[in-house]
From TrEMBL:
<comment type="similarity">
    <text>Belongs to the helicase family. RecQ subfamily.</text>
</comment>
<keyword id="KW-0067">ATP-binding</keyword>
<keyword id="KW-0862">Zinc</keyword>
<keyword id="KW-0378">Hydrolase</keyword>
<keyword id="KW-0227">DNA damage</keyword>
<keyword id="KW-0347">Helicase</keyword>
<keyword id="KW-0238">DNA-binding</keyword>
<protein>
    <recommendedName>
        <fullName>DNA helicase RecQ</fullName>
        <ecNumber>5.6.2.4</ecNumber>
    </recommendedName>
</protein>
<keyword id="KW-0413">Isomerase</keyword>
<keyword id="KW-0547">Nucleotide-binding</keyword>
<keyword id="KW-0234">DNA repair</keyword>
<feature type="domain" description="Helicase C-terminal">
    <location>
        <begin position="211"/>
        <end position="359"/>
    </location>
</feature>
<dbReference type="GO" id="GO:0004386">
    <property type="term" value="F:helicase activity"/>
</dbReference>
<keyword id="KW-0479">Metal-binding</keyword>
<keyword id="KW-0233">DNA recombination</keyword>
<feature type="domain" description="Helicase ATP-binding">
    <location>
        <begin position="25"/>
        <end position="190"/>
    </location>
</feature>
Amino acid sequence: MTDPHQLLRQVFGFDHFRGVQEEVVGRVLAGRPTLAIMPTGAGKSLCYQLPALALAGTALVISPLIALMHDQIRSAEALGIKAASLTSADDRDTVVRRFLNGELDLLYVAPERATTDGFRRLADRVPLSLIAIDEAHCVSEWGHDFRPDYRLLTKLLGDHQEVPRLALTATADPRTRADILVQLGIPEDGLIVSGFDRPNIRYHIRPRDQAGRQVLGLLAERPGPAIVYVSSRKDADSMAATIAASGRAALPYHAGLDSQVRAANQAAFVASEEMVMAATIAFGMGIDKPDVRTVIHAGTPKSIEAYYQETGRAGRDGDPAEAHMLWSAGDFALARQRIEREAAPERQADERARLQSLAALVETTECRRAVLLRHFGETPPPTCGNCDNCLEPPHTVEVTEVARKLLSAAFRTEM
Ligand code: ADP
Ligand code: MG
């Protein structure tokens, strides 16, 4: 086995592991099943890419999105790592041949393929170095993005009991973590949690009155790259047009755009030092742009997990960055109605509680960061000095009473 520090320097070009990376890599190399909870941008990919090089055999990487896999493969190949994916967009015969010949360090597979009998038979014929499960919160119904196919991974894992398994996710509250451990057969002592605090992000949360005017006002004073999250494709198009009309470069991004347009808009944003991306939540996963200075939520996010993940795209370079949420009671009311209409009966109480947690973040007069970090099971200091409530303590009567009234209207009935 090659020395991990040597691989870190020679292949990845880094002098030091960051945060819990060393501990996670060490566990994987020792063959111990592990669940690593690491914030976005913390460097989760390296935690399976490096062991994939150090250990004999091919690493399977379970990953939910084709676009994400292809980005990962491009950056792995740039480092000289032999990686491929088995999706409808790939040349299946070539990939299978390389896999069977043991020519791949990493094979990325979506959960719906990884759980088929055909793939399981294929995987039986090749020595595996490890099985990495990215976005592992998808395995849990408590998580914010449950995908039933993740549940079926137990079959594949069962086929390879002796192969080291590593589950990774950026966002999982304590209950979701416990569930991931059970679902993926990882013992409790396999849980490694790295800190969630993003001290360079300044949090601001206030009610929305006129989204367009408020967003333009914020952007006027904040020149660097920015993402404005909106709730619908239509809003993304119109927000991009409004911003562009104000003289600032802006483009839309949402799942309704042609994939070539999406890729071109993303590339333009990544290359720019001033552009605004007006986007739905389809934008962001796997995008590596370290200098995003501002993230604005012009529509209320779906949950605290979603808010944390989306705001986490700001300031990955460690320089000061800002997150602004413009919420409305109407959004909460709609989210509530949607739960009643669409969530399975046994999920409704949980979904309502999730929404209530977000409402608590919105209406608090306490430190926002403290509320956020406690949600993820941390015990933060009571004040951070870098959020709206710490910087300008709100006048309880004027601000929070309004918030409380609006929210209680949105939550009226038995909540
Ligand atoms: P995550 O999947 O946790 O969001 P990534 O794996 O995409 O994060 O890594 C985020 C960025 O951090 C990448 O640009 C990566 O090259 C960089 N990175 C990872 N590990 C280190 C390290 N030990 N030192 C410096 N930069 C690192
Ligand atoms: Mg990642």
